[in-house]
Specification:
five-stranded mixed β-sheet; about 20% strand; 14 helices; alpha+beta; about 40% helix
Length: about 375
């Protein structure tokens, strides 16, 4: 018995953060734009437009370096809550086309269209073209879509036709599609691995296709098995119906390095307020609090602590402050602070043992409603 051929599409929103900012500010269209960082060169780039990428600007790059590469770069602050709301709306919108959808990240989704062949007359290219047009029409967002027999090949195909491209890799043609591409297109082949393999004579995927799996295993261990599989058209076929976020975090790069502990703890409290607010909107509680601290010499430390599941600002802040006081040990100013919450639980699955919890929940709900109506700075939760 042969396994059923799968039809999986990968949708990637092009420069998502920048695209959203351009909706709100059309004057940014056609210009080199980056979300994140400040004009003074502080912070890092979260997303860069294709006009900026031509100068070498990339995400996760320090803003100062980005400005040196592209002096005309326009840096805009991110509006991450809005990005999340749009991503959620798009996720709901796509369910009219596909029965199973996986949100791989805020700007990437997989659509499993296996079993819809009769519904769409096997015209999958026409279908994904319609999906692409609907995303542009309903959300004013550019996206790239590719379809293949598994998620891995679909994602590789998407990367080859950005921006706002479209590609279908018919079942049985995966190896021919991959053969001329550089080995770096395979997920998991980073720059170091690619350079290592290049020295061994592997340049194009066809070089991997023509090599026994045993040799690749000798060179790379278990990773060699993965490369052999993908080079021959294999990959992940499981489309998960639920996207589980592993962490919620926020960090701030200061306009000026500071060693003022009182000021740093004030900034830390602001970060905690932000992440706890986002946590409560998800109706989650976190078991792990992680502090990130970067000194002026760019040395970075992280410290974590496990607590009872919590979504309350004072509880999380006391933990973050404890981590900060234990971790800030050098006589150097601080450049960046960050707070991350992880290991989530659903409060609905954990009944309260004492009635005071519901009262506190009512207070936090009231705080959230006031912030929604009047802005985040209208009210703050105490630190103790």
């Amino acid at each position: 018995m042969t396994s059923r051929v799968r039809h999986i599409a990968h949708l990637d929103l092009d420069c998502f953060f920048v695209s959203v900012e351009r909706i709100d500010n059309p004057s940014l269209v056609g210009k080199p734009v980056a979300v994140g960082g400040t004009p003074s060169g502080r912070g890092v780039v979260a997303s860069a437009s294709y006009e900026a990428r031509k100068f070498g600007v990339r995400s996760a790059m320090p803003a100062g370096r980005a400005l040196r590469l592209c002096p005309n770069l326009l840096l805009v602050p991110g509006h991450y809550r809005r990005y999340g709301e749009i991503s959620d709306a798009l996720f709901r919108h796509l369910h009219q086309f596909a029965p199973v959808i996986e949100r791989a990240s805020i700007d990437e989704m997989y659509l499993d269209l296996t079993g819809t062949e009769m519904l769409y007359g096997k015209d999958f290219e026409g279908l994904i073209r319609n999906i692409q047009a609907s995303v542009r029409r309903e959300f004013s967002l550019p996206c790239t879509i590719a379809m293949a027999s598994n998620k891995t090949i679909a994602k590789i195909a998407t990367d080859q036709v950005k921006p706002e491209g479209l590609r279908v890799v018919p079942p049985g043609t995966e190896m021919a599609f991959l053969a001329p591409l550089p080995i770096g297109v395979i997920p998991g082949v980073g720059k170091k691995t690619e350079a290592y393999l290049n020295k061994k004579g592997f340049v194009a995927v066809s070089d991997l296709q023509n090599t026994p799996m045993e040799r690749l295993t000798r060179l790379l261990g278990k990773h060699g098995v993965w490369l052999y599989r993908v080079a021959h058209g294999g990959g992940s076929e499981t489309v998960h119906t639920e996207y589980v976020r592993k962490s919620i975090g926020r960090e701030e790069t200061f306009s000026h390095d500071t060693a003022d502990k009182a000021e740093l703890e004030k900034r830390l409290h602001s970060l905690v307020e932000s992440v706890c607010d986002r946590l409560r909107r998800k109706h989650w509680k976190a078991r792990t609090v992680t502090l990130k601290l970067r000194y002026s010499d760019f040395r970075t430390i992280t410290r974590s602590m496990t607590i009872a599941p919590a979504d309350d600002d004072p509880v999380v802040f006391q933990t973050a402050r404890q981590l900060f006081r234990a971790g800030y040990t050098r006589r150097l100013p601080v450049r960046l602070l960050g707070v991350q919450l992880s290991h989530f639980s659903d409060p609905a699955m954990e009944p309260e043992l004492f009635s005071d919890g519901s009262r506190r929940g009512d207070v936090l709900d009231a705080v959230q409603k006031l912030r929604d109506r009047f802005g985040e700075e209208v009210i703050h939760v105490g630190t103790e």
